[in-house]
Write a structure and sequence with these properties.
This protein is of the alpha/beta class. The protein is 43% helix and 14% strand. The chain contains 13 helices and 12 strands. It has a 6-stranded parallel sheet, sandwiched between helices. Strand 1, helix 1 and strand 2 form a beta-alpha-beta unit.
Length: 311
């Protein structure tokens, strides 16, 4: 595997016994354009490094999993005449659009991207997940609430949850709160029976398997995990990265799988109001819609495409 120097992969990948090579690379920053001044220096070195790695390893096929981190390895694949496949988690992403010409195939996360992201072979596979995200029938009315702002946490979600915690504990037997590192110290101020704050976990599948309702950001990975398990959601899309989370949250709400709260509107009162608006009938409909969107077999589908391209 090829990853970014200093990224989470430096910890996660070796733990799984997978060889890892890292490259110093940065992407185009849409939110803080002044940070892009270093790209003319960083990118040529990254591309050369990626080409050397691919040339040394000589794979039968290269899988690009989206984002700027894949660019050096895909440049190397092009230079060495090796076919590559794109795992498209965000079809409008700059890196995906740049590398679509020349891709042997694309594995897209959402059905509508089959037509939007045309390659010689474009398949709707869903988002590949680790084993363990098994279908789970939540209890209605919900007893266990799971809140997550993804791996780094979400300050606005954390503040809203802490502000609404007495009301939430009146409505749920347990509130499990993934705070991220930035919320870990503050969460200790709110410790009480029924509230379980966690800074970070490697066992998200276990937490989802115990949950009945999820409050979350709308990253593709998080949403794919929640729908694979088949849980109803209250989504608070992040406003960063060109608004891709907002687009995904609108699709989830339109499908009936989630209730959406725009990030600027999230307050403790708004959060409690959203929870109270989920009666038993609506929770059942949201659960069915979430399960219908889930693709628990996505990893196997992507692997099949890779094997056929490499053959």
């Amino acid at each position: 595997m090829v990853g970014r120097r200093g990224g989470l992969e430096e910890t996660l990948v070796p733990r799984e016994g997978v060889p890892l090579e890292t490259i110093e690379v940065r992407g185009f920053d849409r939110d803080f354009p002044w940070k892009n001044a270093v790209l003319p220096v960083v990118l040529p070195r990254a591309f050369a490094h990626g080409s050397r790695i691919v040339g040394r390893f000589r794979p039968d096929v290269v899988l690009g999993v989206g984002g700027y981190v894949m660019a050096p390895a895909l440049i190397g694949a092009r230079l060495h005449g090796i076919p590559y496949v794109l795992a498209v988690f965000e079809a409008s992403g700059l890196a995906n659009r740049l590398f679509r010409p020349g891709a042997a195939a694309a594995c897209v996360t959402f059905p509508h991207d089959v037509e939007r992201f045309r390659t010689p072979r474009t398949e709707f596979t869903g988002f590949p997940l680790r084993p363990g995200f098994d279908r789970h029938e939540p209890r209605i009315p919900a007893r266990r609430l799971l809140i997550t702002g993804a791996s780094t946490g979400a300050r606005r979600i954390n503040e809203a949850v802490w502000g609404a915690l007495p009301q939430l504990l009146d409505r749920f037997e347990e509130v499990v709160h993934l705070t991220g590192a930035q919320g870990e110290a503050r969460s200790e101020e709110f410790l009480r029976n029924g509230y379980r704050p966690i800074a970070f976990t490697h066992r998200m599948s276990d937490l989802l398997g115990e949950a009945d309702l999820v409050i979350c950001r709308c990253g593709v990975g998080t949403i794919s995990e929640v729908t694979a398990v088949g849980l109803p959601m209250i989504c608070v899309p992040g406003t960063f990265g060109g608004g891709h989370q907002n687009r995904l949250s609108e699709e989830l709400e339109a499908a009936g799988a989630a209730l959406r709260i725009p990030d600027p509107e999230l307050t403790p009162d708004r959060l409690v109001e959203a929870v109270d608006g989920l009666d038993a009938d609506r929770l059942r409909r949201m659960t069915a819609a979430s399960a219908a969107m889930g693709r628990p077999g996505a990893a196997e589908a992507v692997l099949r495409v890779l094997e056929e391209v490499a053959a």
